[in-house]
Amino acid sequence: MLAALAGLLLVSPFIYLPDWFLIPALTAVGITLLIARTYWAYSQPMDPKAEQAQLRQRIVNGLKSKND
User: Fold this and answer.
1) Cα separations (Å) of 28 from 24, 25, 44, 67?
2) Residue ranges covered by each domain of the chain
3) Among 15, 28, 35, 46, which is least packed by CB within 10 angstroms?
4) What is the mean pLDDT of the segment spanning 1-16?
5) How many whole angstroms separate alpha carbon 54 and alpha carbon 15?
6) CA–CA separation, 35 and 27 (whole Å)
7) Contact partners, residue 30, CB within 8 Å, separation at least 6
8) Which conformational region is residue 62 in: left (phi greater than 0), alpha (psi within -120 to 50 degrees), or beta?
9) Category of 21 on φ-ψ map: left (φ > 0), alpha (ψ -120 to 50) or beta
10) 62 CB contacts (<8 Å, ≥6 apart)?
11) Residue 41: partners with Cβ closer than 8 Å, 6 or more residues away
12) Mean per-residue pLDDT for 10-18?
């Protein structure tokens, strides 16, 4: 992704984009980065202490744990 951005910056003086295109383009890039960060966060393994705390909170709230 960084290589694509660097390539775009190199050829950007030769590309004409209308002024109104900036806001939708930045919005699309921001949404894409937000989705990528969310998927990255979910793909990381959960800390065992945090997982235990989450199971305890489920029990306190009256929900059954995943293992039951």
Assistant:
1) 6, 5, 25, 40
2) 20-62
3) 15
4) 80
5) 51
6) 12
7) none
8) left
9) alpha
10) none
11) none
12) 76
Structure letter (DSSP) for residue 44: S
CA distance 49 to 37: 23
- Report which residue type is found at 18: P
**C-alpha–C-alpha distance, residues 60 and 54, integer Å:** 10
User: What letter would DSSP give residue 66?
Assistant: T
For residue 35, the model assigns a pLDDT of 96
The reply to whether the predicted model has a pTM over 0.90 is: no
For residue 38, pLDDT beyond 90: yes
Place of tokens 């960084």: 2
CB distance 65 to 58 below 8 Å: yes
